[in-house]
Amino acid sequence: MNLPWHLYVMAVLYILAGINHFRKPKMYIKIIPPFFKNPKLLNTISGAAEIILGILLLFSPTSHFAAWGIIALLVAVFPANLFMFQNKNVSFGLPKWILFVRLPLQLVLIVWAFQYTL
């Protein structure tokens, strides 16, 4: 496993985030926009995807596929971040500017993951 250290950081972050979906599901279910059906299932799927993709990042043969999966996941969860920004009831009391900064942060995370797709 001769991967760059920052790929390991990314992997750990996604694995921990995925585990958190199961530790505190209500937090994640709350931010899923109401037009999505079955938010509990979506939380489970996204949490499992984060864990699996994080683990796959740790291995050279699968890291580039996992990076593409993370990009897809980040695109898929963007509506939840937008919903948090637009709806004060699901914003956890965070200041509006932090919720706004989270939106372009998704692009930064996508660019970070894209570095490992090659």
From TrEMBL:
Signal peptide: none annotated. The chain crosses the membrane at residues 6-22, 42-59, 65-85, 97-115. It comes from the Bacteria. Keywords: Membrane, Transmembrane, Transmembrane helix. This is DoxX family protein. It comes from Flavobacterium ginsengiterrae.
